[in-house]
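[agent] plan:
  1. take the single chain provided in the ticket
  2. run structure prediction with default settings
  3. attach C-alpha cells to the ticket
  4. add a short note for the reviewer (M.T.)
[agent] executing step 1
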Amino acid sequence: MPAYAIHGVDITIPDHLATARLASAFTSGGYELAEALAVLRHLKPPDRFLDLGAGAGYLCALAGRVRGAGAVAGVEAGPEMAAVARANLALNRLPAAEIVWGAVVPDDHAGDSIPFTVRRAFWASSLAPPETARGTTVVAVPAQRFCDLLARFRPTVLGIDIEGGERDLFQTRLPADLRMLIMELHRPAYGKAGVKRIFDALSAQGFGYCPMGSKSALVVFERVAAA
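[agent] step 2 finished; step 3 output follows
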C-alpha cells in the first residue's frame, strides 16, 4: 500500500486507488496544497473544524494536529474512502476524530439516501449524474443533511470540497459561531450563475470574500462584523 508524508501528516492509499496522478500530487507536496495552507493559516484555538468531502482524511489529520482529535470531524461519501480516512486518522494518532459516511445534501432533500458516482480518481467522485465511463460505479449512500451536520458538530471553520454539491447548501441559516468557510468552487458543474448564487447566499448571511488563503477556485469566506 503506497504511503506518503505531507506537511507532517502520514497518508496511506490502497493500491487500487493509488493513481499515478495522485502519487505525483503527494510526492510533490501539491495534494490539496491551497486547502492545507488555508487551514494552517486560519485554524486556531478554540476552533472546531468540519471537513465536507474528507477524501483520504488529509485535512482532518492536518487540523487535528492543530486542534486535537476532539475538535475535528469529516464527512465522506465514498464508501471505501470513508474507511481510508478513518485509517489515516488512526495512523496519525487521531482515532477520536469522527468520519461520517454519506453525501452532504441540502436540507430539503427527500429520502434517506442518494445515488453517488464513484470514480477511481476518488477526488472526482460526486453526486453528478451517473456515467458509463470505465472505472465508474453508482452506489446509494446515506444522505447527510447540511443543517443536521452543522447542529451535530457545531463547526467554527468549515472545509467544503464536494464536487458541485455546494451550490445549494447556503439557503440554510448558518450558525452564529461559524466564522469561516474554506471551499473549492466547481464552476464547470454549475457555471457563473452557480458561483453567484453561492456568493450572494453567503453575503446575505454576513460572510465576505477573504483574500488570505484564497487561490483560484479555492475561496475563503469569513464572517464580517456589521459596520
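[agent] step 4 note for reviewer: The chain has six helices and twelve strands.
[agent] ticket updated
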